[in-house]
Amino acid sequence: MNTYETVFIMNPVLSDDQVKETVKKFVDHIKANKGTITQEENWGLKKLKYTIQKKKTGFYYLIEFQADGKIINDLEVEFKRDERVIRWQTVKLEKFALEYAERRKKKMSTNTKAN
How confident is the model at residue 112 (pLDDT cuts 50, 70, 90)? Predict the structure, then answer.
C-alpha cells in the first residue's frame, strides 16, 4: 500500500452541505476500493492564484490516504466527472513527505488541543 495525498478545489458557490456531500463522495470512493483515510483537512474558502472557470475563490480540501496505485486512475476519473470540483492534484508521498506529513499532523493536533 502506498500513501497518497489529494488536494482538490470545489466550486465556491456550493453550500456547506454540498461541500460535505462532495467530500463524502470521494472518501467513500477511496474506502470502497480498499483504501484507508489517514488524514482529512478542510482548508476552507480561499482566493485562487489565478482565475479558474471564471472563479476567483474555491473551497480547498485535503485527503491523505493509503491505497493501491490502481485506485488513482479511478479517482481521477471521478474528479473529472464531478462538476463541483474545479481542480485537483494527487501525489504519492515518499519517505521525506511522509515525515513532513506526520510533523504537520502532530502540530495540528497540539494546536487543536490548545484551543
Answer: low
Backbone angles phi, psi at 51, to 5 degrees: -70, 135
Give the chain's domain count.
Answer: 1
**Torsion region of 44: left, alpha or beta (phi above 0 gives left; psi -120 to 50 gives alpha):** left
| DSSP-assigned letter for residue 80 | H
The CATH number given to whatever domain includes residue 97 is: 3.30.70.60
Separation CA 23–CA 44 (nearest Å): 12
Rounded Cα distance, 29 and 51, in Å: 29
Which residues, at least 6 apart from 14, have a Cβ–Cβ distance to it below 8 Å? 22, 59, 84
User: Cell numbers 479517482 correspond to what residue?
Assistant: 75
Nearest to 6 by CA among 56, 52, 40, 36: 40
Question: Residue 66 — pLDDT band, cuts 50, 70, 90?
Answer: very high
61, 8 Cβ separation under 8 angstroms: yes
